[in-house]
Amino acid sequence: MVKPVVRQEQDALAAAVRDARLAEAAHFEAALDLRDSKSLRLQILKDDLLPAVQASPEARDLFDLTLLPGEPPKLWVDLTSYVLMEPDHRTYRFIQDRQDRREILFESADREQAAAAIRRHMAHRLVARDRQAASLPPPPVQTGYSTASLILAWISGLAFGALALLAAALYVGVLKF
What we know:
The protein is an alpha+beta fold. The protein has helices at about 1-55, 55-60, 110-135, 145-170, and strands at about 65-70, 75, 80-85, 90-95, 100-110. The chain contains four helices and five strands; from the N terminus they run ααβββββαα. Strands 1-2-3-4-5 form a five-stranded antiparallel beta sheet. The protein is elongated, with a radius of gyration of 36 Å.
């Protein structure tokens, strides 16, 4: 009679292990679906922003719009700012990395509002870049030649002329070796 009780306990444990494995598989499947939905939402946001970036040569140089998979997936706008689907899979969180911290620039569940906020950020970055380029001093314009370059040109011309005269003298037969 001991054997049927042990067999029932083994069957119960096997059933519990099977249920645990099924629950874990369902959890992993749900996690993959969630990550896929985050990636799809970020891809749609990228598709919304892409025409604005492609319309301007300056924007094409400055902004990447690169979607990187991972956990969580990120849509990189430029080298320091990116979009995540956080704290849930429906909320767009626009983050900028600073030297000492991360700053949340915008957060909303509305894709159009997120795209508008990112476009505003892009416009401010372009204006800041133009302002920085305008504040740089122009490169120095060199007028004339330096004394060293003139002396070097004179010496090389003298040496080339002497070699030409030597070659001509050897060719004519005035000098013989």
